[in-house]
Amino acid sequence: MVEWANDEELFALIRKELFTAVIGDVMDKMGLFHQFLPPNIRPLKSDLFLIGRAMTVLEADVCGNAEQQSKNPVLAKSFGFMLEALDDLRPGEVYICSGSSPDYALWGEIMSARAKKLGAHGAIVNGYSRDTVGILALDFPCFSMGCYAQDQAPRGKVIDWRVPIRFGNVLIKDGDMLIGDIDGVCVVPREHEQEVFARAFEKARAEKVVLNKVMEGMGAKEAFEKYGIM
């Protein structure tokens, strides 16, 4: 049985042995059927791997002149609470933002530099990212709908953070575990993570056995009947 004492040990084990597909399969078996972000959320490059705890950020669309006309002091700020949320990142966390229209960039190079300095493990946005060359140069894991330079400044503002958010069909709470790779991003609810990861390590190790048997010539039907894995 795999054991870990803290997040750092768990993160290291996950990086070494797990991937989103096996974690998703385990959650399906547990009845957690809506834990993957939409398939259009992709890493900026194919070899990126992301693991960390969610620091949830809620964004909302605004009109370009909202700062002059709004009675809400949050909307009178240039980015709403974006700067405060960014500065609140803790080591091992992932900035994950949703709530706005997918029409503009929610993440960029300077944000990546600040997040990396704070020890954050990545960013996931329900929209686009920009300054792509700069983000890649920082080697900072970023998952988004793609690369698009149109800025959020006159179009959207952060209205809250560390609150539950909806990202596609997934409800994400502050502190939930996020795992991202070339096959997508899955969300492991904090209250289920012990069971999910214990079962995922067991399944990942069993899959290696089955893979070896298939490569040795065992048939798919026989392998599934014997191991229950395919």
Folded structure, characterized:
- The protein has 230 residues and is of the alpha/beta class.
- It has two domains: 1-33 and 191-229, no CATH class; 36-188, Ribonuclease E inhibitor RraA/RraA-like (Glucose Oxidase, domain 1).
- Helices cover 34% and strands 23% of the residues.
- The protein contains eight helices and twelve strands.
- Strands 1, 2, 3, 5, 7, 8, 11 and 12 form an eight-stranded mixed sheet that branches.
- Strand 9 and strand 10 (170-172) form a beta hairpin.
- Helix 2 packs across helix 7 (193-216) and helix 7 (193-216) runs antiparallel to helix 8.
- The longest helix has 24 residues, at 193-216.
- The model has no long low-confidence stretch (mean pLDDT 95).
Which descriptors would you attach to this protein?
eight-stranded mixed beta sheet; magnesium; alpha/beta; 8 helices; elongated; RraA/RraA-like; 230 residues; 2 domains
The main β sheet shows up as:
8 strands, mixed
Helix/strand order: HHEEHHEEHEEHEEEEEEHH
Query: How large a portion of the residues is in β-strands, by DSSP E?
Result: 15-25%
What separation lies between the terminal Cα atoms? 22 Å
| C-alpha Rg (nearest Å) | 19 Å
Give the low-confidence spans. none
